[in-house]
Amino acid sequence: MEPLIRPLQRHESGLLEDFVDRLSPHSRYLRFHSPIPKLPPVVRRALLDVDGRNRIALVAEAGDGTAIGLVHVIRASGADEVAPRGTEAEIAVAVADAWQRRGVGRRLVTEVTERARAAGIDRLTARVLPENTAALELFRAEFEVLLERRDRDAVIVTALLDGVGQISEDDILADLVA
Question: For position 83, what pLDDT does the model report?
Answer without folding.
Answer: 41
